[in-house]
Amino acid sequence: MYIGRFAPTPSGPLHFGSIVTAIASFLDAKSNKGKWLLKIDDIDEPRVRDGSVSEILKGLERLGLAWDDHVVYQSQRKEQYQFHINDLKEKGLLYNCNCSRKMINNSSLTGSHGLIYNGTCREKNLKNQTGCSIRIKVVDEDISIIDSIQGEISQNIHNDIGDFILKRSDDIFSYQFSVVVDNHLDNISHIIRGYDLINSLPRQFYLHKVMGFDFPKSSHIPIATLGRKKLSKGHGDRILIQNYENLIWMNALTFLGQSTQNYHLSMTVEDIIQHAIKGWSKNKVKGFAEREIDEHAHR
Ligand SMILES: [Zn+2]
């Protein structure tokens, strides 16, 4: 069965870029008669802003984006994440790292995705966990994945990233790791998200493999930019103006390369959604990383 999801971080209200991602994942799930789940990525608690969960839920409701099942919160899954950390530890794949940011800066090469961790602590066998991050050992092999929009994504994690962090020194589970456990717990079959997350795909593929989980099919949609800058949460308030939900839908569909010829602004959101599900074609979403939006169209 097709199970997709939308997973916003509650660091502010929805902005056009996150709405586009929500709409793309919703339409792909619904046009495949699948489920569309909602997960709140609130594991990185310092980044969570008060009130933004309810803003996000209200924003989705107003756009007619009704999720299936109950809302999942990462902050309520810490026990499950720890269970899988313990499992990987028993397999001998994890180690503690007490390198400071400064040490890593000074000892690492910079790769195309940032600093490459050189494995300083791999053989140290550090027992004391306080103040340590937990890293996973990676192997020197090329990983190649086909993304349904972006094509082939290849990476050698060992050469480009190094052993990466599953749990930070402040005890927060990393994005890479928590998402993989979530995919497993929620039986996610299809990932649709923004292009800015594509670099994490090989790491997540690797984690699925070592944890024995099936890897979902992935599609990375272009990032919405304004003035060549990625849209931030700050653009949210301006874009989600009451009573303009159908305009937001049409702008999102246009952004996603879907034809809006037969749509008009007097249609209700429900009508637009029914049309959009029928007409949805993922092939029309073009394989580029970024796409400039017309600012005036969203005021
Ligand atoms: Zn270290």
From TrEMBL:
Superkingdom, taxonomy of origin: Bacteria
Domain Glutamyl/glutaminyl-tRNA synthetase class Ib catalytic: 5-277
Gene Ontology BP terms: glutamyl-tRNA aminoacylation; tRNA modification
Gene3D superfamilies: HUPs (3.40.50.620)
Pfam family, one: tRNA-synt_1c
GO MF entries: ATP binding; glutamate-tRNA ligase activity; zinc ion binding
Keywords: Aminoacyl-tRNA synthetase, ATP-binding, Ligase, Metal-binding, Nucleotide-binding, Protein biosynthesis, Zinc
Membrane-spanning residues: none
GO CC annotations, alphabetized: cytosol
Similarity comment: Belongs to the class-I aminoacyl-tRNA synthetase family.
Name of the protein: Glutamate--tRNA ligase
Species this protein is from: Methylophilales bacterium HTCC2181
